[in-house]
Structure formats: structure tokens, C-alpha cells
Amino acid sequence: MIDDWILRVEQLSKHFGPTCPNCHRLTGPDTGRSQCPRCGTVWACVEANLQLNAGEVLGIVGESGSGKSTLLQMIYLALRPDSGHIWYRDNGGPPCDLTTLDRYEARLFRNTKLGIVYQRPELGLNMRFSVGGNVAEKLLLAEWRHFGRIRTRTAELMVKTELPPERIDDEPPTFSGGMLQRVQIAKALASRPSLLLLDEITSGLDVSVQARVLDLLRRIQWEDRITMLLVSHDLGVVRQLARRTIVMKNGHIVEAGLTDQILEDPQHPYTQLLVSSAL
Ligand SMILES: Nc1ncnc2c1ncn2[C@@H]1O[C@H](COP(=O)(O)OP(=O)(O)OP(=O)(O)O)[C@@H](O)[C@H]1O
């Protein structure tokens, strides 16, 4: 099981700004800052390491600005890291460093092997396309060419994500908030990705709607054994899905371990604060 990894992130870093010799001393969890007060550089993600095993859900928690989305966007190959590696392997095959892919290879990888769902549906969906059009967009980018098969796959995905298939030609603005998240999930799953990235997908939803989306993800994970990376500022959400969790603060991973253990016996003072505020 230990060796059953599909994604391994090594020393991954990203900053925004010019940098100066004081940056490292003046930023990070000990200082409570991500932004260097001398030169203004934001250290969004610093030397992050993580491993995702096939079929598991890994949670990433941390306050706003701690670097969760930056880390996710680098893994989604939408943001180039400054340094570090993102190793990927299929079924125990030879590892490939995704940071070495050119733009065309990265786009194809993203469209075939990865799916992403955002907090804001307009980031994941084309709001002027119908549900069918959105799923077709993803599948065409993954090099599906047969219209009939695309249509059948869309109807299948709508059933899977508990959307009425007769609404296949309706546009996103006519759906409710919870339904929009399910449309995003349908689109993200279209090409049967190996890894599903979830960025604050239940934030802003009513508690009952949130519970239904989380139930759906739990069922999908159980049925398809799909590997998921779940980003949330809410430990309560992560606890429901993720067996392991990493905690980020000011661009750094400050704690990692089994979610239950983190909740019961948090080690880092910041995690202790997170846990006490979640209780
Ligand atoms: N393109 C950018 N240019 C400059 N700074 C950026 C850019 N993208 C992110 N940042 C900064 O990097 C830091 C980490 O941001 P990030 O969005 O990764 O945090 P987060 O933990 O996902 O927060 P949130 O939950 O609010 O999205 C923040 O200080 C943010 O302002």
C-alpha cells in the first residue's frame, strides 16, 4: 500500500514578486506572514512535499491565503512552479515528472488524467454552454471525437451526479448552487480522470446542500476508487472525506497525518487553533 502512489510532490515552491535576501527570515508560519515586508514578495507555497496513494482522498486545510489553491493549481499544471517536482505514475508504471511537460503535453495530461471542481462554478464551467456542451468541451479536449458517444457519456454522468438527464441542454445559470457543483463534478469526471482536484467546493452552500454534495463525492470515491485532493478551510468538511490531511500556514505545510489523529491530537499550535475552532 505504501508503494501504491500515483502522485508525489517534492519540494514544490511558488512565489510572486522580485525576492530579496530577507524574504526567508521575514516570512513563514513563525512570522505569521506570507508576504515579505521589505520587498513585497508573496511566498505562496514553499517546499511542499506530499504523496497521494491510488484511491485515497487527501485533505489540505489552512486559512485563507495559506497557499492551498496555489499548490492545487501547480498540480493541475495551470501554474508553473519555481522549483520542485510533481511525479505521476499510472498503475505502478514508470514515474513521469509533470513539471517537465511542454504546454501541449501538459494540456493533454490535464484533460485526460485530471479533473477539477472550483468553489465558483464560473471557473469550472462555461456559463453560456449547456450541460451537454460543457461535458463535450472537456471530452473534445481529451480527444473524444464521436458525437453520439459524447452525448451518451453526458447522460450517464448526469445520472451519476444526480442531475435530471432531461436537462442536458439547459445552461448553468438555470441550475441551483448545489446542482451547479454537481454539473462541475460531471464535467470533471467526463474523461475518467485518475485524479480529482476539489477546491473549496462546498464553501458558500447551505449545510444541507453541502451534505448532499459531500455524500455524492463519497459515493463516487467508493464506486470508482478515484483519487482525490480536497482543499478546504473547513476541517469539518475534510474530516468527512479524507483519511489523511495536511495543514498549511503561510505557504508551508506545518502538519501532516491521519485526519482523525490530527483532530484528536494536533501537534502544531496553528492546527490546535484550527481544531479548537472547528469543535
Ligand atoms: N497571481 C498571484 N499574484 C500574486 N499573489 C498571488 C497570486 N496568486 C496567489 N497569490 C497570493 O499567494 C498567497 C496564497 O494564495 P492561495 O490562493 O494559494 O491561498 P489559499 O490558501 O488557497 O486561500 P483562499 O482559501 O483564500 O483561496 C496569497 O497571499 C495570495 O494573495
Automatic annotation (TrEMBL):
Domain of life: Bacteria
Domain ABC transporter: 7-275
InterPro entries from the UniProt entry: AAA+_ATPase, ABC_transporter-like_ATP-bd, ABC_transporter-like_CS, P-loop_NTPase, PhnK
Alphabetized Gene3D superfamilies for the sequence: P-loop containing nucleotide triphosphate hydrolases (3.40.50.300)
GO biological process: organic phosphonate catabolic process
Keywords for this protein: ATP-binding, Nucleotide-binding
Xref: Pfam families: ABC_tran
Sample GO molecular function, one term: ATP binding
CDD domains noted in UniProt: ABC_NikE_OppD_transporters (cd03257)
Protein name, entry field: ABC transporter related
